[in-house]
UniProtKB/TrEMBL annotation, chains A, B:
Molecular function terms, GO-annotated: calcium ion binding; calcium-dependent protein binding; chemokine receptor binding
Entry superkingdom: Eukaryota
Xref: Pfam families: S_100
Protein name according to UniProt: S100 calcium binding protein A14
Upper classification of the organism: Eukaryota, Metazoa, Chordata, Craniata, Vertebrata
Length: 126, 126
């Protein structure tokens, strides 16, 4: 289960960098924002970076390009435990079920972002 | 410009609560996660809460139900300064331009989430 690696590094690209340092468990993945001018990211930028980084951490089979349904389910269980408790991610479970083969189907970043949005909308409705 | 208020409170709903305490400037809006069992939110849950909370903070005219184009532009300028610098939000500027009357058109939460996703995708492509 070795998942060590560094990807999407920052300068000299000027992008928000995502550093991934996995050492066997996903909880060790960390996201570090870096900007061309080394100024601190805002809270919203850090939040966006966190959501991006989790996708990269769990997208092992797809090498950060896609999540399998099983990887998405693992992410939801481990990273959205409270949203699950209050019923925000119920629709996500159903969507994951409908994605197809649990180890083969591909959930790309845009779909992942949409599913996180569904969780967010669920919370706003409560 | 008084924006004080508390909305979307938590228990007894068991939801992720968003407490909004504005005192004249949006920077004073704060998001506080609260769960039924008072356990700490994960980093991803806090990130989602942050993105939700910013929508609520800037959606003054629409009373947290929608952003006007001008409010969305203000949010992008103030809260996504680095994404702007590295060119991730260029497409957002164009989308805001196309939304219609800057003070009247309505950007609902789902559209806002999609636009934040566009910024995230832009960063991943860099």
């Amino acid at each position: 289960m070795g998942r060590g690696g560094v990807g999407g590094t920052g300068p000299p690209g000027g992008r928000i960098g995502v550093l991934w340092e996995g050492g066997g468990v996903r909880e060790q993945c960390v996201g570090i924002g870096s900007c061309r001018d080394n100024q601190e990211l805002t809270d919203v930028e850090r939040a966006i970076e966190t959501v991006i980084n989790q996708f990269h951490c769990y997208a092992v089979k797809g090498q950060k390009e896609y999540l399998t349904p099983n990887e998405m389910r693992e992410l939801v269980v481990q990273k959205l435990p409270h949203l699950g408790k209050v019923g925000c991610v119920g629709p996500l479970d159903e969507k994951i079920e409908c994605m197809g083969d649990p180890d083969e189907a591909k959930l790309e970043f845009g779909e992942y972002w949409d599913m996180m949005g569904d969780a967010a909308k669920g919370c706003r409705r409560k």
